[in-house]
Amino acid sequence: MIQFKRLDHxxxxxxxxxxxxxxxxxxxxxxxxxxxxxxPSGAIWFNIADIQLHIREEAGGNYSKxxxxxxxTNLAEAKQELERNGLAIEYSSEIDGRxxxxxxxxxxxxxxxLEFIG
Length: 118
Description:
Layout: E1 4-14, H1 19-29, E2 33-35, E3 44-48, E4 51-57, E5 67-72, H2 75-84, E6 98-104, E7 110-116
């Protein structure tokens, strides 16, 4: 059984070339605190309440990388449970302090599970 703890972050996608416009909107208009760093795939990250909002450019298409990310208590057990149910596990770039993987639901929605380490 997968033990979910909380929503950790959401990734939303913007058109290619729109990162500075997104930074201005989310930072200046919504006044979210930007999280500095060299984030995967050129993303920009913001704190929003007790979760993070990740924003990155993506070309159009039906197989999007948009996703919610849920923190779980035991990532290895979650992986075993999903694989027992025939789901394919996908990996992506590493993020310091977190182990993570992705899977897709039957409707091709991408979902990330993660566990904080160390």
